[in-house]
Amino acid sequence: xxxxxxxxxxxxxxxxxxxxxxxxxxxxxxxxxxxxxxxxxxxxxxxxxxxxxxxxxxxxxxxxxxxxxxxxxxxxxxxxxxxxxxxxxxxxxxxxxxxxxxxxxxxxxxxxxxxxxxxxxxxxxxxxxxxxxxxxxxxxxxxxxxxxxxxxxxxxxxxxxxxxxxxxxxxxxxxxxxxxxxxxxxxxxxxxxxxxxxxxxxxxxxxxxxxxxxxxxxxxxxxxxxxxxxxxxxxxxxxxxxxxxxxxxxxxxxxxxxxxxxxxxxxxxxxxxxxxxxxxxxxxxxxxxxxxxxxxxxxxxxxxxxxxxxxxxxxxxxxxxxxxxxxxxxxxxxxxxxxxxxxxxxxxxxxxxxxxxxxxxxxxxxxxxxxxxxxxxxxxxxxxxxxxxxxxxxxxxxxxxxxxxxxxxxxxxxxxxxxxxxxxxxxxxxxxxxxxxxxxxxxxxxxxxxxxxxxxxxxxxxxxxxxxxxxxxxxxxxxxxxxxxxxxxxxxxxxxxxxxxxxxxxxxxxxxxxxxxxxxxxxxxxxxxxxxxxxxxxxxxxxxxxxxxxxxxxxxxxxxxxxxxxxxxxxxxxxxxxxxxxxxxxxxxxxxxxxxxxxxxxxxxxxxxxxxxxxxxxxxxxxxxxxxxxxxxxxxxxxxxxxxxxxxxxxxxxxxxxxxxxxxxxxxxxxxxxxxxxxxxxxxxxxxxxxxxxxxxxxxxxxxxxxxxxxxxxxxxxxxxxxxxxxxxxxxxxxxxxxxxxxxxxxxxxxxxxxxxxxxxxxxxx
Length: 766
What we know:
Elements: H1 2-8, H2 10-30, E1 34-43, H3 68-75, H4 78-88, E2 92-97, E3 102-104, E4 112-114, E5 127-131, E6 136-147, E7 150-161, E8 165-167, E9 172-176, E10 188-193, H5 196-206, E11 208-211, H6 212-215, E12 223-230, H7 233-291, H8 298-333, H9 351-370, H10 379-425, H11 429-464, E13 469-473, E14 481-484, H12 487-512, H13 519-525, E15 529-535, H14 544-547, H15 552-568, E16 574-580, H16 587-599, E17 605-610, H17 617-620, H18 629-633, H19 639-642, E18 644-645, E19 651-654, H20 663-667, H21 671-680, E20 685-690, H22 698-703, E21 708-714, H23 721-732, E22 738-745
Parallel strand pairs: 15-22, 16-20, 16-21, 17-19, 17-20, 21-22
Antiparallel strand pairs: 1-12, 1-13, 1-14, 2-3, 2-10, 4-9, 5-6, 5-10, 6-7, 8-9, 11-12, 18-19
């Protein structure tokens, strides 16, 4: 059935498939190319470095390994995309209108646009520009938008002169021709003022960032790929390239922050020490000049050396204590003041403190990265904040302990200094004064030298910092992968869409068609045999077997005659009842021509019009219907009085007679049986044309006396529901020896030497 249906509707399949391919070709030519661009970034692993100078270089997990997924989060963050978009200052975009969509005119503005600095343009609203002439253009807009929760219809249409300022409540700008370039008439453009925040969000959504280790867990790699799919190739190549640079700069600035903090701290210390050093130097010089003293004695020198050592230790201790206090202040106030920077920890020497600071720094880094991509109530961020608070508490307790120990150490050094000062008091007064002045000078001089040395080291560290990432494969237009349109794929899709459309149309047509339309479908659904089919009668006569005996339709009836003779199995007398389920299926036409075709075979045939309600055979035979079968059944006439000769040799005819209201009751009597038995004595074949069995019961009453009951199905006319009704008739034995004839089969020109009208023609090649 499916195959036959498809073959029957092959022209729809061919037409729709061809139309689909044409559509696919047209789509391929008008749609904008779509590309995939990518770049690869290598994140350097410095997690194994233990030098304190590298604490800030590590965006690390608690275990110290590289947090590649954190780097993925940074690259895909809204903040980084926004910085990139702001770098380009994409305040507006020009597009060229196309048959489908619009083409981005990035770096190729068709006109010069001048914007006032004191006016904020309405963003994300397309403004249509059409060039009318070399000096005129048409500007229009018809958009519904929402502003501050209110719906607003922006509508305007105006003709403008190039170089003339355009102003309304939403837009203010001046459009003029580019220098040396005449605008093309009838060209249409679209101008859109961009919302950089939305643009950054759009880039964030479409940017695909993947760590190689996440793609394949078996690979231990710190490489990250960034990918964009775009139909704005040049613009997005620039974006992806600058995004990579912004990311590398972000990491470098993060590393330089520690060295900058150290330099700032040392500069503050140097400013105070420098003043003290100058004062001490002047005092030392003046004292020696006034007292004409050049050097100290041996005992005084020994006392001075001991005092210098104690004071140096005390100075270092003071620096450590200040570092402790700065770190404590930072931890206690960071949550209230997010702008605080992490203090310098150059003076820290305690291993436990260093590890805790390193851990806390890593947690801060992780939180900063995570905050770009998740909200405050995210479970991961909440857990990370809890861990930071716990680490801060532990670190504060450690610092408090170190501060307490430092103060005890201060007291010890103060005691040592007091003892040395006691020894110093035993020296001569001049030496005592010289020692005090020299001691103050040496202390400030050493401290100043120490601070200069550490500042130089911090500067070297900052200058030698290198980025934590390197771009391995820079993004490039020349290596962009084109994703579409692909001609063969568009043709295939067009073909498939067209084919599916045709199939859908065929299915709808078949579903909407309740009539039997295919002989194979009938054969598949019927449970009774089909003994023949009758081709379409293309002649303007109901007697083609007589008027065109060599036609294909006449051959159809000869084929049915042969099959019936086989079914009758050489019985000397045969009764044939011809039925249809509904009126209009051609039972009278078939009954007449079957009777004729048997009569042509030198068989005596009686054709009986058993349709007592709407007879037609008398019209085909041009006979009167004043008497007939109905009167016989009413016992108003005799059988020999209603049997009439016809103009066709061997064919006799019994008309139905006058239409009576009780035909079913008449046919249910034994009189019809007696009539048939009497007719068998005179005729070889008795053929009944009966009333439709789906409308009245008359035909079934006659069919009980028939040797074979033929039921007609007319293609493209008979309802599909008739098939199940006919099957029921056969299954329930309402009629016996049921067979089917298919009427109105499409004519197929056959092989042979005769055409439809019987004239000879050349045989066709097989």
